[in-house]
Amino acid sequence: MDGLQPSVGQLRRGRVRRRRQPQSHSGSVLALPLRPRKVRRQLRRHGASRVAALRAPAPPGEDSEDSRAEPTAGGAGAALPSGPAAAAGGDTGRPRPPRAWGWPRPVPRPSAAAPPGTLSGPQVDEAGGERPRDSPLQRVLAELNRISSSRRRAARLFEWLIAPVPPDHFYRRLWEREAVLVVRQDHAYYQGLFSTADLDAILRHEEVQFGQHLDAARYVNGRRETLNPPGRALPAAAWSLYQAGCSLRLLCPQAFSTTVWQFLAVLQEQFGSMAGSNVYLTPPNSQGFAPHYDDIEAFVLQLEGRKLWRVYRPRVPTEELALISSPNFSQEDLGEPVLQTVLEPGDLLYFPRGFIHQAECQDGVHSLHLTLSTYQRNTWGDFVEAVLPLAIQAAMEENVEFRRGLPRDFMDYMGAQHSDSKDPRRTAFMEKVRVLVARLGHFAPVDAVADQRAKDFIHDSLPPVLTDRERALSVYGLPIRWEAGEPVNVGAQLTTETEVHMLQDGIARMVGEGGHLFLYYTVENSRVYHLEEPKCLEIYPQQADAMELLLRSYPEFVRVGDLPCDNVEDQLSLATMLYDKGLLITKMPLTLN
């Protein structure tokens, strides 16, 4: 995961807007005020409510008694043959080891040396072979296809990903704090997600470019080398580099693999942050990358073979929850690992930003793993950094105290050369600054900045993957087709009696910009990061309450005739625009008019 970066394509214009110009509307440049009281009345009238993430029951046979083994000091110790020992109920003065979940396993010490897809998943892999029909992954994807709420689907898939660790415990005690090892002893757990056969097929059939989509790297004698030749990564070149001891890193596999796309598209709603991935194939008895830390939360899914991992805590407080990835470290820069283990297929390793890590293959066995990454630059500091300039601008416009001039003589007692001065004028100056900074909170456009970050997340997101139900009840399921020289089955329309809700929970966000309202959405995003510019529809002021009702009422259905618009024309215009764009589903299939 040496600097996990998705590939970026050429940007193309693709913004969708209505032609009619809206009436001007007063309000913040960033946030157009809506009418929440009217919306709340409509929510109470129709009993609409947001459905929280629920823990879905596990499918039969997925969580056996064996896989529910609770972590013990012995289990953690087994995964740490040369790391610090676990302390039971006390502080030894050493960092606590990460929790190891599932079956403890003895670990050897190292030797010296498109349009939206369907959630049920493809039945053939990227190489054209048949997917395993009854792997744990295929079972959970089939289960997700039966869950109506996208938020519940995201919660269930994350629960499956980290099982048997309870999600509540993970977020409360481990997220951003500890490295976590999940040992499953189930080599088929991720079967069907990605394989070396998939990688070979992608090299043969896709336009994979060295440096943009594929990296070849090795770490020998404490030095990392990147050996990317120019041009396309044809199989002959890629596999020759692999034979020469290079690890192959496929960037953004979700652009090539439908299953990886489905996996990430569901999980991004769980994190509320972009979910990306890389795939790493390492030849036997080699190491591809130098020790380093990343600026993302990392989930390592071992897919094939075995790999020895060493994970280290941040060395100094400034590396904790790092904002940028580190340079390469030498072995002399590292202390004792907090975790040392060999991952086998089906195992999971999680570590937070700033945790140094390195991995190598041994014993004549290759390794294939996928790293799921999220939470890049998604911190309180990033949020406040966006708030403060706007708060200062608003304060200067609205409060005369921020516009008063500085004391004429302030340079006589302020600045580094006066930092030890006891001048009372200096004390008064510092107090004035503290008072003004405290007042900034009254001018902070917190909701407007939250909307802008949500807009950015919509742009970052993968396009949604649909369940069979969502496809059948949306525009994607209409029976319109070309037959006998003409279109047939044309004429299905929404009416005021039609009941609708948003296609999924996190696919759209309404944002006020420049006195106008825009609805940004994900359904036309590319699987390649930021290949397209953000897509949006303009929402007119007289339809704002209706749009907010639809966004907030998911997954409850709302009758089109009950949308809080001034007239039927606005109700049908809004609902039809959203349905035609693929943003709404109906309670019942539309009938031909």
UniProtKB/TrEMBL annotation:
Kindly indicate where the leader peptide sits in this chain.
none
- Record Gene3D superfamilies: 3.90.930.40, Cupin, JmjC domain-containing ribosomal oxygenase (ROX), dimer domain
- Residue span, JmjC domain: 246-391
What gene name does this entry carry? LOC105982898
Question: What's the protein name?
Answer: Bifunctional lysine-specific demethylase and histidyl-hydroxylase
Q: Does the keyword Cytoplasm apply?
A: no
Q: Which reaction does it catalyse?
A: N(6)-methyl-L-lysyl-[protein] + 2-oxoglutarate + O2 = L-lysyl-[protein] + formaldehyde + succinate + CO2; L-histidyl-[protein] + 2-oxoglutarate + O2 = (3S)-3-hydroxy-L-histidyl-[protein] + succinate + CO2; N(6),N(6)-dimethyl-L-lysyl(36)-[histone H3] + 2 2-oxoglutarate + 2 O2 = L-lysyl(36)-[histone H3] + 2 formaldehyde + 2 succinate + 2 CO2
Cellular location of this protein?
Answer: Nucleus, Nucleoplasm
Q: According to the UniProt entry, which residue ranges have a biased composition of type Basic residues?
A: 12-22, 35-48
Cofactor binding annotation = Binds 1 Fe(2+) ion per subunit.
InterPro entries in UniProt: JmjC_dom, NO66-like, WHD_RIOX1
What are its cofactors? Fe(2+)
Q: Which organism is it from?
A: Dipodomys ordii (Ord's kangaroo rat)
Which SUPFAM superfamilies does this entry report, sorted A to Z? Clavaminate synthase-like
